[in-house]
Amino acid sequence: MMTIVIIDDDISDIEYCKELLGKNFDAFEPPKYFTDPLEGLGYLNEHKPDLLIVDVEMPGLSGLDLLQRLKSPGTEVIFYTAHDKYAIEAYRHFALGFLLKPFNEAEFIAVIKKALDRLAHGKREPRNSKLLMDTLALESKKIAIPTLGCTYFSKIMDIVRLESVDSYAKIHLTDGNIHISSYGIKFFENFLTMPLFFRAHKSHLINLKKINKFFPDGTLVLDTGERIPVARRRRTGLLELFDRQNIGALG
């Protein structure tokens, strides 16, 4: 029998998960559950269960912070949250399950079945967890943008793209602001690295989470509506990256 842990500060959500598990699955032992994420983390690291269902937002320790401290690489993880500000696709890229509250029985069953399939066939890849950790680390940081007038400090996730203009770099932000730095795009590429940023062209460094579409002619369309060319020699690498992260190309 497989082991499962549920961590959520809301006991009613725990009871709902337990009800759906008991009704639809017989592969698990009775779930262990915790409303205190720190207590749950201690149990996880000691017992290393097969499956973890964890809320994203909890007082004291968020689900994402808990994952960073999880010492059980073989544990399959399913996140859920009531806050749609969290990008569901961002977690799916890393072969992690994700549910948006309030979820129904069919959605719950589908995610659990996918987790069971991965556990049964040993499909979980440790590199995916590392990739997620690397991405989270980048997302939590700020970067200094030196300009002629002063130095701006921007959250990395607020950067949509960088554009090379002569020897300068134009940094385009999500709020529409543009900063021009005398430091070239190569300078920023040392800090804005994979798995979050990709050098699509000698003149363009893009935030992969801001991509909306990718066309066969090598054109990227960003969430802002901007169209960015991908150099022919870089297209294969971008498609391989999409495939590794399960992003999928749109056309």
Briefly summarize what is shown.
By secondary structure, this protein is α/β, with parallel strands linked by helices. The chain has 8 helices and 15 strands. A 5-stranded parallel β-sheet has the order 2-1-3-4-5, with helices on both faces. It has a 5-stranded antiparallel β-sheet with strand order 10-9-8-12-11. A 3-stranded antiparallel β-sheet has the order 13-14-15, with no helix packed on it.
Report on this structure:
- The chain is of the alpha/beta class.
- Helix content is 34%, strand content 27%.
- It has eight helices and 15 strands.
- The strands form four sheets. The chain has a five-stranded parallel beta sheet with strand order 2-1-3-4-5, sandwiched between helices. Strands 10-9-8-12-11 form a five-stranded antiparallel beta sheet. Strands 13-14-15 form a three-stranded antiparallel beta sheet, with no helix packed on it.
- Strand 11 and strand 12 form a beta hairpin.
- It is elongated, with a radius of gyration of 21 Å.
- Residues 86-95 and 246-251 have low confidence and may be disordered.
Secondary structure elements and their pairing?
Blueprint: E1 4-7, H1 11-24, E2 32-34, H2 37-47, E3 51-55, H3 63-68, E4 76-81, H4 88-92, E5 97-100, H5 105-121, H6 126-139, E6 142-146, E7 151-155, E8 159-165, E9 168-173, E10 178-181, H7 185-189, E11 197-201, E12 204-207, E13 211-214, E14 219-222, E15 227-229, H8 232-244
Parallel strand pairs: 1-2, 1-3, 3-4, 4-5
Antiparallel strand pairs: 6-7, 8-9, 8-12, 9-10, 11-12, 13-14, 14-15
